[in-house]
Amino acid sequence: MQLQVLLVAGTHGNEINGIWLFDEWNKSSFLINTHGIKTCNVIGNPDAKKAGKRYIHNDLNRSFQEESFLSINSSNCESARANELVNLYGEAGENPCQIALDFHTTTASMGSCLVVYGRRNADLALASLIQNQLGLPIYLHESDQKQTGFLVESWPCGLVVEIGPIGQGLLNSRIISQTKLILESLMEQIYKVKNVNQFFPNKLIIHRHIKSIDFPRDEEGNIDGYLHSQRQSKDWQELKKNDELFCKLNGEIIRFEEDETYIPVFINEAAYVEKNIAMSFTKRELWNLKKEWKQSLIDLIHQK
Predict the structure, then answer these.
(1) Long-range contacts of 15-18, Cβ-Cβ distance < 8 Å, separation of 24 or more
(2) DSSP string covering 113-161, please?
């Protein structure tokens, strides 16, 4: 089986920088160096892109659930699209891809980072290569039963790239340049593994998801407080006991009261308000790279 990589932009239709880059790439194939690796480049949610919205019925990046794959004729736009993408590009699809790379932007001050869902060996191995090359933080999203059904989980190996901050529906030169750089770096690392010319790092730094917290709300469920100025744009920075979290108009300050030190991420992400998430807490950990992670990625890329 020939190695193919699925490249996805516009999983959320109002995250337009990756979409714009892919559109330009389609006009001039030389704009992106894929190092000879065959790719399938797709807009994740074309209906949402056309409407200028994050999604039509449901978040596509929460729609890759088993129940979504029962019928491709589903009246739910995102369920049908999730089904279609798997049928076209899944491991057993018409045009199978072994690796999925999903490019996103965020309104939070996350800079450029990788998101890994769960602890799949090949995902961690590929993420370690990019962290070693570009120094990107890795956010390990796990143990959150409210947030499931992510696109990349439907492929044997997959990473999400998040870049911010950028407002929804806006183009930005830095975001476009960073997307291009990370895309080409990922393809370079895959190429090196394919050609047995890759050295894996011994360790990687993981920001492991612990939990998410909501904004303060009144008895009717309405938000009645806002992010404190000391917390805004402080993604990846330590949060300690008594640090400010939220403010209310009456001057009340809501503080972080736990004894544990956490690293907050996706602080004040606009799209997460509907998910009742003001920020997520992580623990920063140094992990040894395991041999089985490396071997899993090598085997996947070299499978016949």
Answers:
(1) 15/54, 15/104, 15/105, 15/168, 16/49, 16/169, 16/170, 16/171, 17/105, 17/163, 17/166, 17/171, 17/172, 17/175, 17/176, 17/179, 18/103, 18/104, 18/105, 18/179
(2) EEEEES--HHHHHHHHHHHHHH---EEEE-S-TTS---GGGGSSEEEEE
Q: Tell me: domain 211-281, CATH 3.40.1190.20, correct?
A: no
Amino acid at 30: F
User: Could you name the CATH architecture of 4-202+289-302?
Assistant: 3-Layer(aba) Sandwich (3.40)
User: What is the domain partition of the chain in residue ranges?
Assistant: 4-202+289-302, 211-281
Per-residue pLDDT of the chain (304 residues; tens, 9 = 90+): 789 999 999 999 999 999 999 999 999 988 999 999 999 999 999 999 999 999 999 999 999 987 655 555 568 999 999 999 999 999 999 999 999 999 999 999 999 999 999 999 999 999 999 999 999 999 999 988 888 999 999 999 999 999 999 999 999 999 999 999 999 999 999 999 999 888 999 999 999 999 999 999 999 999 999 999 999 999 999 999 999 999 999 999 999 999 999 999 999 999 999 999 999 999 999 999 999 999 999 999 998 7
Q: Tell whether pTM > 0.90.
A: yes
Query: From start to end of 164-278, where are the E strands?
Result: 203-213, 226-227, 244-247, 253-255, 263-265
